[in-house]
């Protein structure tokens, strides 16, 4: 989708090479900008196939390419016509272009600023979205009023089709789902305490008899009211069994205002979910699973274990749990699951999760054929993934999920998803 329109224009273009390069760079920037916005639009087919981590990685890469292409387009335009340096004396179409380029640079700066520690996600994320929307609208106005690309009938059809597809995705993401979709409407059935600072939110679907279908380990975005942009929302992993779709359970640790509010919701309160998303799920053909959980990172593991127990799965399961001594989450239920499944649970009791520990938990060369799942804090992921790599487990067998965000995990070849709880 990035290279198609660019190659089509380059093939059909007539004129001086510098003019062709100018339009190619502008078209590259425009199409890449649109795909940068579409990538994180929560298309379930994409998040299930690639995982949210790869989608966000593609979003960032496409964003950098878009900014570079737009700035290069601007530089070539000024080189060809130095008078464009004064946008106030230029035509309206050129002024739209200057504003679009400025908005694109602002999008990049806000993204860089927001990733620094201590920044409020809700503030910079909304700024990021609004600036991106302004940039794509201004760029579209620049192309429309300039008219060069639309003179070619083939390109006019191609760009019109891409524009309609883009608008359809944006309508689905920002209007239909948050305002009108009945699929994600849920009511609070009850709140079950799990520990001093952790509770499980039990939800029942409002309109659907069977509720949301999902795979164990997937997550949803939750918001407390219907709104296009003004409502705060956060991702939470589904903790309940995928075999039971009449209700949905989300285990939440009260680490912030939003999660604390969730834990205090009275029965009958309505919430809205967008999902399911994510590819942190167990493959049915894997001969066995190794689950390494830290703190509330045990949530997707509980969904996996509950699902496996409900389907009477006979595969061997190994679980390593690193939790605070004062909050041993799901300890009685894990003991019950160990009687229903071929499950061994190892609690670290303060010991670091390293290669020596994992060698004790899963000895032998057969561990290379098991699927490994790691979920927890950045420090747990960094140590566990390094230890798994030392054991010689192939990268394609390792799946990880980080809650919270502190940058990339320095281990190559693993699938990772960042998520708040």
How many beta-strand elements?
A: 12
How many angstroms does the end-to-end distance come to?
A: 34 Å
- Give unreliable regions as ranges: 405-421
Shape: elongated
Number of domains: 3
Quaternary structure annotation: single chain
Class by helix and strand content?
alpha/beta
Overall helicity: 40-55%
DSSP helical segment count? 12
- Strand order of the biggest β-sheet: 4-3-6-1-2-5
Kindly estimate the percentage of residues that lie in beta strands according to DSSP.
15-25%
Top keywords for this entry?
6-stranded parallel β-sheet, Rossmann fold, alpha/beta, elongated, 421 residues, Elongation Factor Tu (Ef-tu), domain 3
Write the layout of secondary structure elements.
Blueprint: H1 3-12, H2 17-38, H3 44-50, H4 52-80, H5 92-114, H6 121-146, H7 153-180, E1 185-195, E2 198-205, E3 219-223, E4 233-237, E5 248-253, H8 257-263, E6 270-277, E7 289-294, H9 299-310, E8 316-322, H10 331-340, E9 342-347, H11 355-361, E10 371-376, H12 378-390, E11 398-403, E12 415-419
Parallel strand pairs: 7-8, 7-10, 8-9, 10-11, 11-12
Antiparallel strand pairs: 1-2, 1-6, 2-5, 3-4, 3-6
Helix pairs in contact: 1-2, 2-4, 2-6, 3-4, 4-5, 5-6
Describe this structure in words.
Strand 1 and strand 2 form a beta hairpin. This protein is 46% helix and 19% strand. With 421 residues, it is α/β, with parallel strands linked by helices. Strands 4-3-6-1-2-5 form a 6-stranded antiparallel beta sheet. The protein has a 6-stranded parallel beta sheet with strand order 9-8-7-10-11-12, with helices on both faces. The chain is elongated, with a radius of gyration of 25 Å. It folds into 3 domains: 178 residues; 93 residues, Elongation Factor Tu (Ef-tu), domain 3 (Beta Barrel); 131 residues, Nucleotide-binding domain of ferredoxin-NADP reductase (FNR) module (Rossmann fold), CATH 3.40.50.80. Helix 1 packs antiparallel against helix 2, helix 2 runs antiparallel to helix 4 and helix 4 packs antiparallel against helix 5.
């Amino acid at each position: 989708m990035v290279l198609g329109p660019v190659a089509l224009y380059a093939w059909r273009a007539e004129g001086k090479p510098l003019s062709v390069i100018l339009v190619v760079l502008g078209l590259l920037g425009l199409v890449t900008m649109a795909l940068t916005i579409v990538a994180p639009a929560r298309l379930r087919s994409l998040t299930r196939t690639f995982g949210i981590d790869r989608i966000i990685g593609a979003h960032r890469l496409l964003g950098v390419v878009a900014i570079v292409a737009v700035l290069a387009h601007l530089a070539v335009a000024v080189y060809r016509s130095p008078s464009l340096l004064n946008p106030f004396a230029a035509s309206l179409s050129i002024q739209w272009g200057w504003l679009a380029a400025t908005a694109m640079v602002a999008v990049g700066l806000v993204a860089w600023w927001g990733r620094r520690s201590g920044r409020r996600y809700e503030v910079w994320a909304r700024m990021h979205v609004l600036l991106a929307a302004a940039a794509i609208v201004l760029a579209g106005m620049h192309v429309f009023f300039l008219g060069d690309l639309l003179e070619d009938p083939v390109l006019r059809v191609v760009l019109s089709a891409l524009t309609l597809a883009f608008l359809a995705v944006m309508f689905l993401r920002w209007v239909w789902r948050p305002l009108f979709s009945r699929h994600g409407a849920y009511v609070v059935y009850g709140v079950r305490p799990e520990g001093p600072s952790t509770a499980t939110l039990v939800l029942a679907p409002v309109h659907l008899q069977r509720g949301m279908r999902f795979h164990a380990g997937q997550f949803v975005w939750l918001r407390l009211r219907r709104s296009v942009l003004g409502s705060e929302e956060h991702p939470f992993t589904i903790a309940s069994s995928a075999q039971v779709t009449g209700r949905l359970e989300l285990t939440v640790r009260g680490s912030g205002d939003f999660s604390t509010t969730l834990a205090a919701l009275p029965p009958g309160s309505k919430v809205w979910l967008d999902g399911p998303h994510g590819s942190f799920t167990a493959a049915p053909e894997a001969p066995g699973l190794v689950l390494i959980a830290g703190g509330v990172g045990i949530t997707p593991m509980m969904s996996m274990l509950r699902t496996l127990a409900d389907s009477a799965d006979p595969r061997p399961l190994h679980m390593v749990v690193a939790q605070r001594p004062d909050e041993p989450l799901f300890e009685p239920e894990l003991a019950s699951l160990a009687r229903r499944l071929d499950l061994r649970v190892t609690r670290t009791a303060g010991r670091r999760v390293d290669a020596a520990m994992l060698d004790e938990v899963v000895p032998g060369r057969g561990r290379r054929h098991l699927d490994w799942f790691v979920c927890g804090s950045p420090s747990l992921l960094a140590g566990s993934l390094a230890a798994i790599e030392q054991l010689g487990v192939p990268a394609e067998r390792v799946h990880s999920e980080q809650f919270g965000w502190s940058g990339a995990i320095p281990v190559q070849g693993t699938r990772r998803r960042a998520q708040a709880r």
